[in-house]
Design a protein that fits this description.
The structure holds 2 protein chains of 2 kinds. In chain A, 20% of the residues lie in helices and 33% in strands. Chain A contains 7 helices and 15 strands. In chain A, strand 5 and strand 6 form a beta hairpin. In chain A, helix 6 packs across helix 7. Chain A is globular. Chain A starts with a strand and ends in an 11-residue tail after the last strand. The relative contact order of chain A is 0.14. Chain B is α/β, with parallel strands linked by helices. Chain B has one domain: Aldolase class I (TIM Barrel, Alpha-Beta Barrel), CATH 3.20.20.70. Chain B is built from 9 helices and 14 strands. An 8-stranded parallel β-sheet of chain B has the order 3-14-13-10-9-8-7-4. In chain B, strands 5-6-12-11 form a 4-stranded antiparallel β-sheet, with no helix packed on it. A two-stranded antiparallel ribbon of chain B has the order 1-2. In chain B, strand 7, helix 2 and strand 8 form a beta-alpha-beta unit. In chain B, helix 2 runs parallel beside helix 3 and helix 5 runs parallel beside helix 6. The termini of chain B are far apart. The chains are: A alpha/beta, B alpha/beta. The interface between A and B is large, with 33 and 39 residues.
């Protein structure tokens, strides 16, 4: 079966900053072989006396392999689900369902890619880094975070060479009016074959405004994560028509230009 | 795998099912073929289709609750033609009868839709006269015996396949609705849809659903629905299909003992897309463990001691 529910084992689980945690799993199947950059898994966060998450938590894969039974996640400890997940220790069991969704398109023939990430959005794009590095495709990264201590450049690149531009809320460099000229210059000067982004509606809107050609990984509240329940829709422009697409299976990766704004109806 | 020694087959009117486990409408689509062999299911129940195109409700459409979830999807639908042309072909060759769930705004539209869906490949129609999200303030046909009777009668005059009436639990007297559906000619009852609910985020003061109110599902509602299955099964002669909070084979057995002939599994599939297969295997194991040769024997076989209350009262009087 293409999608499996598997009882995995926690191999490593540690904090990488004050709010983010790294999780490495060993799976009873060669999941690494079947998982692509941009895909995600549903995690059955453990129920405890303190937390009882009911639904699974969709989480994009942060690392794939190198052993064929290993997958990794990098997540923001934030709500009921991630606070429950955070308590797992090495050796504990964790049930996951996946791999799910449609990942990023990538070609080893490209010369350069531009990755624009904000916050934990970098975890979703991180699997693109080794793909590009192995293929000899140059990487430019614009990384946006609250403050320098939260940037996680090393976690993102994991030793791969890249030209990094860091911007922060703490010094105002992440403001849209300051990021706009930076991105405009990079697009003009470097002519990346593809731009990827995740983690910020403002950066998405900016890249759309600049006419960037590429892909965005989106988020939405979901239940089934397989295209069945129709919860996780977002609005898109396709051939002059407004259409709803399911983030879980038609995405989470979509063409940059198709996303219709950042309208939240809730 | 299912033990061939145990007969898991059940009969819903004229329809034979190889086992009593099927999906709940709205919680199943062909995408699940990526996670399981659909042919192992007792039946397939597709998401409600409406005569008119509908875009569905604003997001967020789901919210987690204690031991369950709220949803207000709003039945997005591409219409009947799309359903027949694009959805039905996904199930050609799957060795399980297909039940098409239908929803509509009026009894006449319901009847016309059921007529249009009485086509090869559709073994029965589930008339969703209960979805709480369709009409203003969550009202639905199945909230009144009169509207239920009118809708089902009209549908029965036009449909050429068996009709299952899906009831809403948002009523004072479910047995009265069950009898109205039976009187109108329903071939089976599905008990029940979601319980109307609401959740608010205390931090933002906003409702957790875009549509404000929505349907509660999951284990949180199981005792309520098992009680309703029990009441409906006592009130009618047609088969009752239990639907509410089933996560495991034990939960399915609970519904069967209360009076259900078959069960529908919804929210559990969102936690594990292959959950229904585990429940089928678990039912076979249960039957084997309890020496049950035919699972149909379980229907309504809850062991209630009819004299218990009398004996209790007598004892209380003696001691008093």
């Amino acid at each position: 079966m293409k999608v499996a529910t598997l009882a995995c084992r926690v191999v490593e689980h540690q904090w990488v900053s004050a709010r983010y945690k790294y999780l490495r799993l060993s799976c009873p199947a060669p999941l690494a072989r079947h998982t692509a950059a941009g895909q995600f898994f549903q995690l059955a966060c453990p129920v405890s006396e303190a937390q009882a998450p009911f639904l699974r938590r969709p989480m994009s894969v942060y690392g794939i392999g190198p052993e064929e039974d290993r997958i990794e996640f990098l997540y923001h400890v934030k709500g009921i689900g991630t606070r429950a997940l955070e308590r797992l220790r090495a050796g504990d069991a964790l049930t996951v369902t996946g791999p799910l969704g449609t990942g990023f398109a990538f070609s080893p023939d490209w010369k350069r890619v531009l990755l624009v990430a904000r916050g934990v959005g970098l975890a979703t794009m991180a699997p693109l880094v080794p793909l590009a590095a192995r293929a000899g495709v140059a990487i430019t990264a614009v990384l946006s975070a609250r403050a320098p201590g939260e940037l996680m450049t090393q976690e993102f690149l994991r030793g791969a060479p890249a030209s990094v531009h860091a911007v922060f809320d703490s010094d105002g460099s992440s403001a849209v009016e300051r990021v706009e000229p930076l991105l405009r210059n990079l697009l003009d000067a470097e002519r990346p074959d593809r731009v990827y982004t995740c983690g910020s509606n403002r950066l998405l809107a900016l890249l759309q405004k600049l006419g960037a050609h590429g892909e965005v990984a989106l988020e939405q509240q979901m239940a089934c994560a397989m295209g069945v329940c129709l919860s996780c829709v977002r609005l898109f422009n396709e051939e002059g028509e407004k259409v709803f697409r399911r983030v879980c299976c038609e995405g989470p990766v979509f063409p940059l230009g198709a996303v219709a704004g950042e309208v939240q109806f809730g | 795998m299912v033990d061939p020694q145990v007969d898991l087959g059940v009969k819903i009117g004229s329809l034979m099912l190889k086992n009593p486990v099927m999906p709940a409408s709205g919680c199943f689509a062909h995408e699940y073929a990526q996670a399981m062999d659909l042919g192992r299911l007792g039946a397939l129940v597709t998401k409600s289709v409406t005569p008119k195109r509908r875009i569905g409700n604003p997001v967020p459409r789901v919210a987690e609750t204690d031991a369950g979830m709220l949803n207000s999807i709003g039945i997005p639908s591409s219409g009947l033609l799309y359903y027949v042309d694009k959805i039905l072909p996904h199930y050609v060759g799957v060795p399980a009868p297909l039940v098409a769930s239908v929803s509509a705004d009026t009894a006449e539209e319901f009847a016309a839709a059921c007529e249009a869906l009485s086509v090869p490949g559709v073994s029965a129609i589930e008339a969703n006269i209960s979805c709480p999200n369709i009409e203003a303030d969550g009202r639905a046909f199945a909230m009144s015996p009169k509207d239920t009777h009118r809708a089902i009668s009209e549908i029965k005059r036009h449909a050429r396949v068996p009709i299952w009436a899906k009831l809403t639990p948002n009523v004072a007297d479910i047995a009265e609705i069950a009898r109205a559906a039976e009187d109108a000619g329903a071939d089976a009852l599905v008990v029940a849809n979601t319980l109307l609910g609401m959740a608010i985020d205390p931090e933002t003061r906003k409702p957790k659903l875009g549509n404000v109110m929505g349907g509660l599902s999951g284990p949180a509602i199981r005792p309520v629905i098992v009680r309703m299955v029990f009441q409906c099964a006592r009130a009618v002669r047609i088969p009752v299909i239990g639907c509410g909070g089933i996560l495991s084979a034990g939960h399915a057995v609970e519904h069967l003992l209360a009076g259900a002939t078959a069960v529908q599994v919804g929210t559990a599939s969102f936690l594990d897309p292959a959950a229904m297969l585990g429940i089928i295997d678990g039912l076979a194991a249960y039957c084997e463990r309890h020496g049950v040769a035919r699972i149909a024997e379980l229907t309504g076989s809850v062991r209630i001691d009819p004299g218990l209350t009398d004996r209790w009262l007598r004892l209380a009087q003696q001691s008093g």
